[in-house]
Specification:
This protein has 261 residues and is mostly helical. It contains twelve helices and two strands. A two-stranded antiparallel ribbon has the order 1-2. Helix 7 packs parallel to helix 9. The radius of gyration is 18 Å and the shape is globular. The mean pLDDT is 89.
């Protein structure tokens, strides 16, 4: 029954929330210059909330919901009042040190780190090195998805590639299909330019992906993905990830696959 209800719920939510965002003027120019509502992140948050309350397809208990909510709210604040510059973590810290100005990007980075730390302190049992790995994953996975979110479908593809196998092998087929349907429907809406993730959606998707890995992936797999996020974060301070994607043939073709506009 869930496999019939969930797609309908997502489609209806996307329709009404995207219209609400347009009416409120909560839009931003996308990579083609069109004004698009950054509504898909809010759709994802409502879906996660409904799932936590009624369906429990995803591993979202009270502390997981706290972490996801905090990450989403920080991203939404940045979408609403944040500025385009400075770029990168170094840029936000430099702005603070040189001009004593606290950017929304700095608040977002510090807030995600705080939320991840609280989650670890109250909800993680294990060795210190494992805890530090998980902490980095919870901080840098949302950040990495935000860095990659410059064109439609990019975030969804990464989330699917990194989480689907652990989910289907540990959580089962139904949860994996629900995850695939969520990605397919919201990814389709994004590809058709009905809405975009925005900072709130990219970070929330990354936070959900981190939790899926934490609950369903093995320690070595978690370590590998964490290293991936560290490398992405480091490279983003040095080069343009968009330029790197465009200059790498195999990655470029994968990036373009499924994008309608």
């Amino acid at each position: 029954m869930e496999l019939l209800i969930i797609p309908l719920v997502i489609i209806v939510l996307n329709h009404f929330i995207s219209r609400l965002f347009v009416k409120k003027g909560w839009t931003v120019n996308n990579y083609t210059g069109l004004k698009i509502p950054y509504s898909i992140g809010t759709v994802l948050f409502v879906v996660v909330t409904l799932d936590a309350l009624f369906y429990r397809m995803f591993p979202v208990g009270p502390w997981e919901y706290f972490y996801l909510s905090f990450v989403w709210i920080l991203g939404l604040i940045d979408d609403r009042v944040g500025k385009a510059h400075p770029k990168g973590i170094k840029g936000h810290f430099r702005l603070f040190l040189e001009k004593k100005e606290v950017s929304t990007g700095l608040i977002k980075a510090a807030g995600v780190a705080a939320a991840a730390t609280v989650y670890i302190l109250f909800n993680f049992e294990g060795a210190l090195y494992a805890g530090l790995t998980v902490l980095l994953l919870l901080i840098l996975f949302p950040h990495s998805m935000n860095l990659f979110d410059t064109k439609p479908l990019r975030v969804w593809k990464i989330i699917f590639l990194l989480t689907f196998w652990p989910v289907i092998t540990k959580a089962g087929v139904i949860t994996a299909v629900c995850l695939a349907l969520l990605i397919l429907i919201l990814g389709s809406a994004e590809s058709r330019i009905q809405g975009m993730l925005g900072d709130n959606g990219a970070m929330l998707a990354g936070a959900l992906g981190a939790l899926l890995l934490l609950h369903y992936a093995g320690s070595l797999y978690i370590l590998a993905v964490t290293l991936f996020t560290v490398i992405v974060t480091f490279l983003a301070e040095k080069i343009s990830l968009q330029a790197w994607v465009e200059a790498t043939p195999g990655i470029k073709h994968l990036d373009q696959f499924g994008r309608l506009k």
